[in-house]
Amino acid sequence: MLLIKNVKLVDALGERGPADVLIGEGKILSLDGGEAETVIDGTGLFLAPGFLDLHAHLREPGQEVKEELATGLLAAVRGGYTDLVSMPNTTPPVDTPEAVRALRKKAQALGLARLHPAAALTQGQEGKTLTEAGLLKEAGASLLTDDGHTNEDAGILAAGLLQASAFGLPVAVHAEDASLRRGGVMNDGPLADLLGLPGNPKEAEAARIARDLEVLRYALRRSPTRPYLHIQHLSTKRGLELVQEAKRAGLPVTAEATPHHLTLTEEALKALDPLFKVAPPLRAEEDREALLKGLLDGTLDAVATDHAPHTLAEKEMDLLRAPFGIPSLEVAFPLLYTELHGKRGFPLARLVELFTDGPRRVLGLPPIHLEEGAEASLVLLSPKERPVDPARFASKARYSPWTGWRLGGWPVLTLVEGRIVHEALE
Ligand code: DOR
Q1: 278 CA closest ligand 1 atom index
Q2: Residue 62 pLDDT greater than 90, yes or no
Q3: Which residues, 6 or more positions from 193, have their beta carbon under 8 angstroms from its beta carbon?
Q4: Nearest alpha carbon, ligand 1 atom 3
């Protein structure tokens, strides 16, 4: 038994407490204290349900030089995540039931965060032939996506939505029009022109979201089951408006935004540092402001990391050649806790919802709240500030665009079904 005494509670329902939280048999046994072998003083700390990341690149199989399950899932629990969806753009892509089973088995043996692998929507993520949604679901796939690649063929996406919905699987899309994006390495506009870099226009995202929503309408009209579309790493104001309109019209669509699009803008590229190179690219301040509004008004359902580790050698190439991607599993919550809640008064309960019930809804999982009988997959957070130091990351990607930022809200204890998987109590 574990007792966390005098701790503030926060979940999607609100902030309350302090309470004395008794944990045993993998559950919250009481919020009123009790006898326990291990007692933690929770004074000044707050307890939340464990986070779920809808979007992380853990690079297994085939790209273990960048990340592997052991390092990625350790980074996850250090970031307060008890559950994580891994992206299938590996080598080879995760597009068979065997590959999904192998990932789940390996992750279970590690006993860190629980892995919910995403599988590819099309074979080899080539956009030509659908994968076997039913068999993938049976093997434990959580959603289908060709993330990392764009779905250029609208007909394949429509067929994919129809097939996935028959098995209750969401389809998630990396919404960028490849023919508009072309070789863009940063947001298209005056700054890219000034720096002499090829731009990726915001319209590439908006155009693709508009198309995908029409594809969804078509799939809905043709299907007795309910096709369901999730839009990944939304980065533009116009893209957000389109999702908002669709939600108002009652379409089954959800969307996520990343810590980098919520805290950084294209201005960060001025020094030509590839650490800030990501797809979709960092946008203008008006886009960032729109995303922040979207977090509050419910247009956005989840914060998802898009944790995309590459080797330092790759990220030290010049801006044109370096790969796209920012690692963020270990800093995502502290970043938003500090930059949004601390500096802008963003409600803490809503922020926690965007890391818990919001992403859980996308996967069709029930909400998780801090009450007697609830599963003890939890994170204890400390408001104490310290600077971001990538040398301390468990991820193989030991660099960060946020190096030196002073953040609070660090996970000091993470529990999965009552088991301690991360501990950094002082
Ligand atoms: O920045 C990105 N990195 N965007 C993607 O879509 C893919 C990802 C990766 O796999 O590195």
Answers
A1: 1
A2: yes
A3: 199
A4: 325
CATH class of 49-367: alpha beta
> Could you tell me the distance, in angstroms and rounded to a whole number, from the CA of residue 67 to the centre of ligand 1?
13
Q: In whole angstroms, give the CA distance from residue 114 to residue 365.
A: 13
Distance, in Å, from the CA atom of 396 to the CA atom of 226, rounded to the nearest integer, reads 39
- Burial class of residue 293 (count of CB atoms within 10 Å of its CB; 0-12, 13-18, 19+): middle
Distance, CA of 349 to CA of 341 (rounded, Å): 10
CB atoms within 10 A of CB 149: 19
Q: Are 68 and 59 in contact (CB under 8 A)?
A: yes
Residues 6+ positions from 126 with CB-CB distance below 8 Å: none
Percent of all residues in the chain with a pLDDT value above 70, rounded to a whole number: 100
Query: Is residue 340 annotated as involved in ligand binding?
Result: no
Per-residue pLDDT band at 426 (split at 50, 70, 90): confident
Q: Is 324 annotated as a binding residue?
A: yes
Q: Is 149 annotated as a binding residue?
A: no
Question: From the CA of 56, how far away is ligand 1's center (Å)?
Answer: 9
Average pLDDT estimate for 100-123: 98
**Of all atoms in ligand 1, which is nearest to the CA of residue 89?**
10
Q: What atom of ligand 1 comes closest to residue 309's alpha carbon?
A: 11
Which of 40-49, 123-132, 171-180, 219-228 is the least confident region?
Answer: 219-228
Place 378 in a pLDDT band, splitting at 50, 70 and 90. very high
Give the C-alpha separation, 100 to 88, whole Å: 9
What DSSP element (H or E) covers 346?
none
pLDDT at 277 over 90: yes
CA distances from 337 to 148, 193, 264, 352, 384 (A): 28, 34, 15, 9, 11
Catalytic residues: 306
Distance CA 191, CA 186 (A): 9
Pocket of ligand 1 (CB under 6 A): 57, 89, 147-148, 174, 278-279, 308, 323-325
Q: How far is the CA of 308 from the centre of ligand 1 (A)?
A: 6
Where residue 71 falls among pLDDT bands split at 50, 70, 90?
A: very high
Cα 283 to ligand 1 centroid, rounded to whole Å: 16
Q: Which residues are CB-neighbours of 233 under 8 A, at least 6 positions away? A: 55, 174, 256, 257, 258, 261, 280, 304, 306
**pLDDT attached to residue 404:** 98
